[in-house]
Write the structure tokens for this entry.
Amino acid sequence: MDIMMYVVIAAALALVVLIILATKYTSKGKGFDEMQLVKRADAFRAGFFTMLGCVVMLLILENWRPWTERVTSSFSLVAIIMITMAVFGIHCVIHDAFFRMQESRKLYLGLCAAVIFGNAMQVFSYYRDNGTLLQNGKVTLDPCGNLVTGSVFLILAAVIIIKMIADRKEEKE
Amino acid sequence: MKNLKLKAARAAKDMSQEQLADACGVSRQTISAIEKGDYNPTINLCIAICKVLGKTLDDLFWGD
């Protein structure tokens, strides 16, 4: 991976941080309402038990040679984190508890697009250089971690867009 | 259970869910969920809704 790719990734991360800070300080000061807090608590619980289940499964798989020969622990841990985030995020989006009141969905979708793009570039660059996504026949953090991260943000963005369309239809009724 | 009394009171005031939500300091989806019967609001939110719509708690949330 050449130095330019690191520069691109660093720039993308800096952009993500700036967008988060901008959203935080330019919002109209409204947080989550009472229903959203209840739904977020449910989402945290779902995420927690998902993570717990994945960790237990990983502990079992780590004692199974065909798994350890093909998948590294670092990738497994990142995959668990991303799956947990996906469960939490999707649960929140479905129950209208992901965004604060009057928070911009479009800004967040832009953030998702930046993350998806950065990770996709990383995956593409690795595949272009090596002709495979595996390192020595193993699923590793680089670039498979990027693949998982990009996929999770893509799924989250898709769910947000579908919810936005459904909400618009509901508002018209 | 759906809260049709709330929906009727809101319609009588010619208010959208968004307007009622803004007036009560909650999201539109919360008002929608209350009307559909998917969420039971706290007493504070019930009181806030009643004040905005000019109704009593009995009118909107209790009784038949």
The interface with chain B takes residues 30, 33-36, 38, 96, 101, 167, 170-171 of chain A (CB under 8 Å). The radius of gyration of chain A is 18 Å.
